């Protein structure tokens, strides 16, 4: 089990030495995943809340589909986005394949159903509690929707973090649409896959440890923000 | 009553965040770069880390390499998703040019394939001179052999050798013959864990760190020759091809400077690729 102790040594050496390539990879990972989660939240939060509040034809189908799409295989999403963005595909003229933008698009598709589904559940429960009160106050549907989203913001943070977890951990989609190009589209997970293919398991695991620490930092920061905000509103 | 959100402040913050996110991509998009569809062997061996900075220094052009199996690299180039194709399966490369997808094929360099396997060599593959005979010995011994099974240049070479050996591997799939359906590195990791035989290019093998009990058991046969060719994607098929910078990459690879850079790349003191422009072009 030398590889495991070597992994800690490799991770420590990279971090302590302020490895420039590592900083670039970490930066791009955060940029891609945070952008994707941000866009997915802008789409998913209102979409989830709307399916919770409103009754319209096809609503149940949308709920089932959103739930099912929480389990979309990243490699399939990557393949679909690849076919769409390839020069031979319908959006080829945009020249987006093998760019960070393509990676964000793929991750938005992966993350949006997670945020939308979890939002729907949270808002549905809240709606049951507040429905009569809101109706008696004469709040319109849009007003109710924004009010509920705001009221549930601390629970919804967990939905967004679940989305971030998905985005930062997946390798299948970003590998296909990003191409794992050095200094252009290489992120933490594709760098790990590359080191595994080079047989450098210690370095791969070292990168994995750094990814874990990063993910913990993002979640820790979210916890602190939530904690501070809750105290202010208490 | 639930509090009403301060919508305006949120909206301003969101828009500001969006602007920051997307403006950060602009820097790399305006640089002069080409996309090269290439093989995992050239990338995993570390060759690109050595020669690409020299190419950029000489021309000011950045080469972005997408490293996949030769079969997939050719499909990328056919779809117009790359400007230059740099792979190692001559018949496929010639077909690519013949069908009008590529402008012209240039010889760049070569190395060779090697058969790796357990140090104890239970199948006696090392006793055979010809590579095909070594494979026959492995098949007779029913000892595990891991195959790429992914339509890569290495896989195509392997299938050719099995045909020469007169062994139908499809019959033994899942028994001693194990198709991993993945890249060279993953296949070697599997071979290392199963103490199996495998065919690999020499450069990947030299750089591979997880050798375990494996070593080279058969090498040097003429049939293990592994030439690399480079082709510009035909702008008649794909008008967006970056002809000038793509051709600059090819011209540099086959120039004296490029050939010297390739020859100078060593892994653990061993030369990994041998330039061969003068010999062929």
Question: How would you characterize this protein structure?
Answer:
The complex is a heterodimer of chains A (234) and B (281). With 234 residues, chain A is mainly α. Chain A has a single domain (2-233), classed as MetI-like fold (Orthogonal Bundle). In chain A, 80% of the residues lie in helices and 0% in strands. Chain A has helices at 2-16, 20-53, 59-69, 74-85, 100-136, 141-151, 153-169, 172-178, 188-197, 201-233. In chain A, helix 7 (153-169) runs antiparallel to helix 10 (201-233) and helix 9 (188-197) packs antiparallel against helix 10. Chain A is globular and about 65 Å long. Chain B is built from 13 helices and twelve strands. In chain B, strand 5 (145-147), helix 8 and strand 6 form a beta-alpha-beta unit. In chain B, helix 7 packs across helix 8 and helix 11 crosses helix 12. The radius of gyration of chain B is 23 Å and the shape is globular. Chain A binds chain B through residues 31, 34-35, 38, 42, 86-89, 92, 95, 97-101, 130, 133, 137, 143, 146-151, 179-184, 194, 196-201, and chain B through 1-5, 7, 14, 17-18, 21-22, 24-25, 28-29, 33, 35, 40, 44, 48-49, 62, 64-67, 78-81, 183-186, 188-189, 192, 207-211, 238, 240.
């Amino acid at each position: 089990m030398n590889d495991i102790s070597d992994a800690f040594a490799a991770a420590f050496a990279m971090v302590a030495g302020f490895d420039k390539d590592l900083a670039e990879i970490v930066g791009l990972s955060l940029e891609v995943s945070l952008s994707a989660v941000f866009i997915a939240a802008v789409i998913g939060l209102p979409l989830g809340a709307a399916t919770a509040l409103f009754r319209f034809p096809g609503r149940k189908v949308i709920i089932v589909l959103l739930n099912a799409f929480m389990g979309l295989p990243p490699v399939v999403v990557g393949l679909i986005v690849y076919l769409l963005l390839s020069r031979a595909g319908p959006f080829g003229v945009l020249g987006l394949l093998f760019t960070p933008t393509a990676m964000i698009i793929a991750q938005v598709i992966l993350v949006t159903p997670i945020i939308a589904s979890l939002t729907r559940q949270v808002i549905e429960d809240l709606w049951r509690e507040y429905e009569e009160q809101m109706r008696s106050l004469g709040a319109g549907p849009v007003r109710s929707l924004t009010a509920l989203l705001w009221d549930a913001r601390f629970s919804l943070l967990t939905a967004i973090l679940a989305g971030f977890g998905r985005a930062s951990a997946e390798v299948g989609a970003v590998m296909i649409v990003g191409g794992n190009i050095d200094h252009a589209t290489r992120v933490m997970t594709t760098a790990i896959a590359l080191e595994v293919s080079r047989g450098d398991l210690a370095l791969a695991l070292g990168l994995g440890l750094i990814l874990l620490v990063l993910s913990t930092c993002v979640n820790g920061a979210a916890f602190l923000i939530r904690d501070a905000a809750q105290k202010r509103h208490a | 009553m639930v509090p009403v959100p301060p919508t305006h402040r949120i909206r301003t913050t969101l828009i500001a965040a969006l602007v920051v996110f997307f403006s950060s991509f602009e820097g790399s998009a305006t640089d002069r770069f080409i996309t090269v569809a290439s093989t995992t062997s050239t990338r995993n061996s570390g060759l690109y880390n050595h020669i690409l900075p020299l190419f950029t220094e000489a021309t000011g052009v950045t080469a972005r390499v997408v490293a996949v199996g030769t079969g997939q690299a050719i499909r990328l180039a056919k779809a117009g998703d790359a400007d230059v194709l740099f792979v190692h399966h001559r018949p496929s490369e010639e077909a690519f040019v013949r069908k009008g997808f590529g402008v012209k094929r240039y010889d760049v360099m070569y190395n060779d394939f090697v058969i790796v396997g357990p140090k104890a060599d239970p199948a006696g593959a090392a006793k055979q001179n010809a590579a095909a005979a070594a494979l026959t010995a492995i098949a007779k011994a029913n000892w595990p052999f891991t195959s790429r099974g992914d339509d890569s240049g290495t896989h195509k070479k392997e299938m050719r050798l099995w045909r020469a050996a007169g062994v139908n591997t499809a019959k033994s799939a899942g028994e001693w013959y194990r198709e991993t359906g993945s890249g060279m590195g993953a296949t070697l990791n599997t071979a290392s864990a199963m103490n199996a035989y495998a065919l690999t290019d020499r450069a990947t093998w030299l750089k591979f760190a997880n050798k375990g009990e494996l070593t080279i058991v058969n090498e040097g046969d003429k049939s293990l020759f592994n030439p690399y060719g480079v082709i510009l994607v035909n702008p008649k098929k794909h008008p967006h091809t970056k002809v000038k910078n793509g051709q600059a990459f090819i011209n540099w690879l086959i120039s004296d400077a490029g050939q010297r850079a390739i020859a100078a790349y060593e892994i653990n003191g061993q030369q990994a690729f041998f330039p061969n422009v003068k010999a062929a072009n």
